[in-house]
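Worked example

This section walks through a single chain of length 410. The input is the sequence exactly as stored; nothing has been trimmed or padded.
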Amino acid sequence: MGTGTFQQDDSNTTRDAATAGMDIGRRLRLIRENLDSGALAGDDGRRGSGEQPWGGSAALWLLIIGIAVLSGFALVVKLNIPETNISAIRETPTSECITIADCTAAINANPQNASAFRIRGDQYLQQGKFVKAVADFDMLLLLSSEDIEGYLGRGKAYVALLRGERALQDFDRALEMDPQEARGYYGRGTALFALGSYAKANEAFTEAISRNAEYAAAYLDRGVARYNLSQYDDAVNDFDETIRLMPQSATAHYDRGVVNLARGQSAQAAEDFGEAVRLDPGGVAGYVGRIAAFNSLGEGAKEQKDLRRMKELKLQSAQDFVVRGRALVDRGELQDAVADLSAAILRDPSIGEAYVQRARAYNALDQGSQAQMDKDKALELGLYKTYVEQRSVAPSSLEARSRPTIYWWY
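Given that input, the structure is written out below as tokens.
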């Protein structure tokens, strides 16, 4: 759900095209990566504090000095200088570790710098590099097993990688460490949602809100869960609250528009989608939703005007191409749809939804062999053989929203 991440296919009706921004369908490929971290540096070389490096008689001492001088070396003597606290260095964050490059340099300088692993893991998470994020949070927790941020961060990455059970373990561990941590309940909700447990996800988001009444993301994603439970009025209330907390959120306006369209309030839906377009004029989902609302209202001229604007958008992300491509398939504009879906695949070959939608277009164009190849690729990416009738949507504030899509091949 939202203005442009994971989408999932629906039936070929125009109204269902509005769910393009809410639904999911992206199947992330889990790739094997070797973490070349080497052996952890230990503290075996530390000297005992205060211990003299020499002993014995004055004659022996003079002999040692004489040998050093004759050899041309300067003898440096440690006289009761307090030792460096290596564990303190390990846990002390550096103000220079902000970017991935900075943190990598810090880790190379000190492979036991837990803070650098934590910061770099967060950066990878924000960039959608979830396998690398998991690797960094693994290292963080190896160095500092009681770091709650490590469990919260790794749980987010596991949700994105479709590993809901592992994500639940991490969020539950975070809640064991701090039972009042709202983010732990929020993360638990996202993991439950990824597993398709919408009712339990609803409960977890509610627990998060009970601990932080201003938690906008929890309201937003609870609204998505309630939409999936067909609790439309409650979902709208949650989106209202999200908009109160984040009035500039195009996602919240879009999501409310989808629910309003689903409960037959097309005029209000058109207003919601219009606000999403105003807040994110370059986003495609707002146009897709408003086109469906205008169609429902019988306002053909406005529908066609938005359709032209949608086609003129200069899209960049693979997901936006998928959203527009699916909308075009639903409208029967098949050649344009194939072009958009091919552009999506070129940008990100791991998006199963793009292959599913292009297969639909090829089928309609009587290009069976191309359609079969796309179906096979979609199945290779982990998608089932059913075409979606249910509307599964994922929490929209997640960078990577994740639930396997179910497809039906006609």
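What to look for: The chain is about 60% helix and 0% strand.
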